[in-house]
Amino acid sequence: MNFRPIYFTRRALEGMARGPYVALVGTATVFVALFAVGLLAGVLGGAERLLSTWAGEVRISAYLAPGTDLAAARTAVAAAAPGREVRAVPAAAALRQLSEELGDQAHVLDGVGPGVVPDAVDVQAPGISLADARALAKELRALPGVADVDYGNAWLEKLETLVSRARLAAVALFAALAVATAVLVGNTLRLAVFARREEIEILKLVGATDAFVSTPFLIEGLLQGLAGGALAVGALAGLHGVLIPRLKAAVGPAGALRLTDTLPPALLLGLLAGGAAVGLIGSALAVMRSLRRA
Amino acid sequence: MIQLFHVTKEYPGDAPALQDVTLAVEKGEFVFLTGASGAGKSTLLKLIFCDEAATSGQLLLFGRNVAKVSPRAIPYLRRNIGVVFQDFKLLPLRTVAQNVALPLEVQGLPDKDIRRKVKLLLRSVGLEHRAGKLPPSLSGGEQQRVAVARALAADPALLLADEPTGNLDPERTIEVMELLSAANARGTTVVVATHDRSLLERYKRRVVMLERGRLVSDGDSVRRTAGEVR
């Protein structure tokens, strides 16, 4: 077969123009499937981003052993956590703060002297990931004079479990949706090829090779897949623009979500490439089956 | 051109469609293949056209043993064969000119050459003025003339016609037969399967008669029409 891209693309476009309904159904199927996949990925991506933001509002406290020089410890902690806000908290200040926080119940602290509460160095770590928090805590714990380190371990660990479970659920849903998409698109394209079985038969009658017969169908599948993918990307971006301002009213931090948080470029490119691949593979399988019969 | 040696074709659960057929068609011949419905005419054409394979025996086409031709090479073999069917087999959503152009597109001819050739072909079948029409808007006779033009587009060495006049009235039948005869006069070998006795009477050509899959007679149409053709 001669390589004639313009001829075959023209034939593919003519084929779609002759059967616009089938081409539209193929494109719509790819669109719906990829939109569902993209929506799921976007929601999960956004949720994960929000959770990590909340998880990041973390303060890591290094409690010092009695007799440790607070200023030296602060310098050591600052060196271990470069770029972060590091504050020395003397025991007296800690007690005062606690007393303020207790308000009417402050009397429970009567008799508690500064010696009971240790001096501490606090590290403000907004946006820190759990893994980084864990690593920083380990590093601080190794500093001389540091008796203990607290970074809200319990709730952060729970949050991490929640996020990893959500991630697992997302992978399972992705797998299910990917299979459903492939089957759905494959069947739709099979219908498209079936509708033109007469054309395939006649082409073979006049001496067309399998490659000659199948190339326009493959191009059609590719174009429909790309069109479905592009529509899905456009619809998801539109949905982000509409939903985020409304979500901001209900969930404040959601307002900070950018398009790249929910729909990162890799996801959008993946949807386009996925659409093209699904269209191409679906039409290849359909046309191969039809050729075997012709 | 075509040589069959003891060719048998069987379908599972059915009586043999062809049994022990031995036949030779020389280059430039015009042969009628006749017999009642179910005699094996279409099956024989399908074997020659490489649409089906013989169960046993040997079929040589253009000197090549068809059983030894790889599936990939069959399309190229078919380009030497034009085929005309009773039901025309035209693409209804392509124009007359586009239908005729198909074999030339398959062979990768430049657009300019295709347009020129299609024009000549449509002129030769008297349908130049219908080039832009869709086949369903044409009469049966016109559609069959388009099918003949398409079959002849690639200048095939062999033209097979399976009941080409089965759907046509006598006047249109003559038009189509004249086109096939003209192609034969230009050197194309023509094999026409028909059960229309009037054709055998009108055109004095070699007649091969099949009956229940067996070749029962092979001779000129004068002798056949004298009493042997049923």
Shape of chain A: rod-shaped
Instruction: Report the count of strand segments of chain B.
Output: 10
The overall pLDDT of chain B, averaged over residues, is 89
Oligomer: heterodimer
Key words describing this protein structure:
heterodimer, A: about 290 residues, alpha+beta, 2 domains, four-stranded antiparallel beta sheet, about 10% strand, B: about 230 residues, six-stranded mixed beta sheet, about 25% strand
Describe this structure in words.
The complex is a heterodimer of chains A (294) and B (230). Chain A has 294 residues and is of the alpha+beta class. In chain A, 72% of the residues lie in helices and 8% in strands. In chain A, helix 1 (5-18) packs across helix 8 (210-250), helix 2 packs antiparallel against helix 10 and helix 6 packs parallel to helix 10 (265-293). Chain A is rod-shaped, with a radius of gyration of 31 Å. Chain A starts with a helix and ends with a helix. Chain B has 230 residues and is α/β, with parallel strands linked by helices. Chain B has helices at residues 41-48, 74-78, 96-106, 111-124, 140-152, 170-185, 197-202, 221-228; strands at 2-9, 18-25, 30-34, 56-61, 64-65, 81-85, 158-162, 189-193, 206-211, 214-220. In chain B, a hairpin with a 2-residue loop joins strand 9 (206-211) and strand 10 (214-220). In chain B, helix 3 (96-106) packs parallel to helix 5 and helix 4 (111-124) crosses helix 5. Chain B is globular, with a radius of gyration of 17 Å.
List the topology elements.
The complex is a heterodimer of chains A (294) and B (230).
Chain A: H1 5-18, H2 20-55, E1 58-64, H3 70-80, E2 85-89, H4 91-102, E3 120-125, H5 130-141, E4 146-150, H6 153-195, H7 197-205, H8 210-250, H9 259-262, H10 265-293
Antiparallel strand pairs in A: 1-3, 1-4, 2-3
Chain B: E1 2-9, E2 18-25, E3 30-34, H1 41-48, E4 56-61, E5 64-65, H2 74-78, E6 81-85, H3 96-106, H4 111-124, H5 140-152, E7 158-162, H6 170-185, E8 189-193, H7 197-202, E9 206-211, E10 214-220, H8 221-228
Parallel strand pairs in B: 3-8, 3-9, 6-7, 7-8
Antiparallel strand pairs in B: 1-2, 1-4, 4-5, 9-10
Helix pairs in contact in B: 3-4, 3-5, 4-5, 5-6
